[in-house]
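Tokens in:
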């Protein structure tokens, strides 16, 4: 056994050992007897937890708070949660919060930040969304996914929307993620967006708005499932007061959509999850989804193409692959079509897809649909393709490539948020109100040099949710990323999604790559959940991975440094 493999085996053994220890500790926490009501201690705890929560001198005091009305009364969806948390002693809350942190660390649920692996902080106070509010959000997300599907099908074929003058042609051709190699490459069931992550924010008036679309490799759904599982184990008493819709069946819907994407003449499609490797920041999610779907997790070296067919190397020999759920960016997917130096992809997979012998999910070229400038035209797409008005509005956005709007941005840059069109993960954003004269001057020059590369938006005071900081609960800003799965006939939206929280006081940047954390997101059920919605339902999800697995790479080995560098380089929207 080589040293690297031996190290991995030891690491896995230690992780399993820590997980067993953590489970026994968390069970001990769960089984502690409830504290007897004590007017003195509970009253003090209530005061201590929420003391000064709505203080007028807090950062962004005009932000919409999800739990409290402006007069301090508790909003209806949060009343039961508030009543459960308010009497809790600070020491008990701290103990349970520590248990959440240990659960993620011991299970290896981490994210790469500044080159170091760390667990994403899971806050102990969940976010709650009422049934009626979620119903509207769900309709809006489905509407948006359908319009973007129609747009992608159009621009990679006849581009009728351009011919009709709804969008300018240069908007498409100037997009870095418009891939000419995908022209006329039409998937068997017409689905290009198998998985979408739609980022939402709630403004000062309490209105949900779309901040951006993620149609390439949207990540974070693993944290949605693990947040729920960990919260249910460490804080089970909270769930006894609410009817919360389940999130555990996501993998069932994803597997169904991937199998439905295969060519119609394939009776039993073979699906694989293609990962860049263990050094990728979202590797935990790749392995979790493969395990829950009961399919193989492969790297590029485990696959090869012959005669426009894709095969997987296994211990039992070659096996034909029909659907590749890739978590690799376009540029690294096929060295024959994109980056010739890529060692992460599969040479020839694009030709196999064009021949109809394999389906790539999500489709190559989807990035033209989630470009931040193209985003500003999605309301027109909804009108053009669906003849509907947007259910969820966009955040107001100024497009610097238009002369009039660019002039407004240059004149009011100190009041706006400037974003790079090709940026992701919260990098490159300039908050005008916090910028100094030198930063504003440099930003204006960047806008003039590359108008296509920038958009600007008003500062949106993201809504706040109580978040544990030290021994108190304080307001922290949040966003929401719901996940939608399209199987060609229906768009399933996972109830809730990933709530990301900006942990530093006053910060509006929630990205995990910028030090943000997460919250469990509770969508309340309108009526008692059906049998199929129960949290522990396992129907359709394999209990263990298949016995066979990819064999070791045949041929020249790549150095670990080469693998690590490319795995970390290709992050795409994995944030």
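Residues out:
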């Amino acid at each position: 056994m080589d040293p690297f493999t031996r190290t991995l085996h030891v690491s896995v053994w230690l992780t399993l050992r820590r997980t067993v220890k953590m489970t026994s500790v968390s069970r001990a926490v769960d089984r502690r007897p409830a504290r007897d009501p004590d007017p003195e201690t509970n009253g003090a705890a209530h005061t201590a937890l929420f003391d000064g929560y709505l203080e007028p001198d807090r950062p962004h005091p005009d932000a919409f708070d999800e739990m409290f009305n402006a007069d301090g009364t508790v909003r209806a969806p949060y009343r039961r949660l508030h009543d459960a948390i308010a009497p809790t002693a600070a020491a008990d809350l701290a103990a349970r919060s520590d248990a959440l942190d240990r659960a993620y660390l011991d299970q290896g649920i981490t994210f790469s930040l500044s080159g170091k692996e760390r667990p994403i902080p899971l806050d102990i106070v969940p976010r709650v969304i009422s049934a009626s509010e979620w119903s509207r959000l769900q309709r809006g997300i489905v509407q948006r996914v359908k319009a973007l599907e129609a747009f992608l099908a159009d621009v990679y074929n006849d581009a009728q929307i351009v011919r009709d003058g709804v969008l300018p042609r240069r908007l498409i051709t100037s997009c870095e993620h418009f891939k000419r190699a995908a022209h006329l490459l039409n998937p068997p069931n017409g689905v290009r967006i198998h998985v979408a992550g739609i980022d939402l924010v709630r403004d000062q008036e309490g209105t949900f708005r779309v901040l951006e679309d993620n149609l390439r490799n949207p990540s974070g759904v693993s944290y949605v499932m693990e947040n729920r599982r960990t919260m249910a184990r460490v804080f089970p008493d909270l769930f006894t007061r609410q009817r919360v819709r389940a999130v555990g069946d996501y993998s069932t819907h994803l597997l169904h959509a991937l199998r439905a994407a295969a060519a119609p003449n394939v009776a039993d499609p073979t699906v694989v999850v293609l990962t860049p490797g263990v050094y990728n920041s979202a590797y935990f999610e790749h392995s979790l989804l493969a395990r829950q779907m009961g399919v193989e997790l492969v790297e590029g070296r485990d696959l090869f193409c012959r005669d426009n067919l894709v095969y997987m190397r296994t211990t039992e020999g070659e096996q034909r692959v029909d659907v590749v759920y890739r978590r690799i960016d376009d540029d690294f997917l096929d060295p024959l079509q994109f980056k010739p130096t890529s060692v992460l992809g599969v040479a020839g997979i694009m030709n196999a897809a064009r021949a109809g012998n394999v389906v790539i999910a999500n489709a190559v070229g989807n990035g033209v649909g989630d470009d931040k400038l193209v985003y500003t035209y999605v309301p027109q797409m909804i009108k053009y393709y669906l003849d509907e008005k947007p259910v969820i509005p966009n955040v107001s956005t100024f497009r610097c490539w238009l002369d009039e709007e660019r002039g407004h941005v240059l004149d009011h840059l100190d009041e706006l948020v400037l974003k790079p069109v090709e940026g992701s993960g919260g990098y490159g954003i300039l908050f005008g109100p916090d910028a100094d004269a030198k930063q504003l001057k440099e930003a204006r020059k960047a806008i003039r040099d590359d108008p296509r590369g920038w958009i600007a938006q008003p500062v949106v005071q993201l809504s706040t949710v109580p978040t544990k900081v030290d021994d108190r609960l304080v307001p922290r800003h949040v966003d929401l990323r719901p996940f939608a799965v399209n199987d060609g006939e229906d768009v399933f939206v996972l109830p809730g999604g990933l709530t990301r929280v900006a942990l530093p006081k006053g910060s509006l940047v929630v990205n995990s790559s910028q030090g943000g954390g997460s919250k469990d997101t509770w969508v309340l059920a309108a009526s008692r959940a059906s049998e199929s919605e129960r949290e522990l339902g396992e129907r359709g999800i394999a209990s263990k991975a298949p016995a066979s697995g990819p064999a070791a790479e045949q041929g020249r080995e790549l150095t670990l440094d080469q693998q690590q560098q490319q795995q970390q380089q290709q992050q795409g929207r994995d944030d």
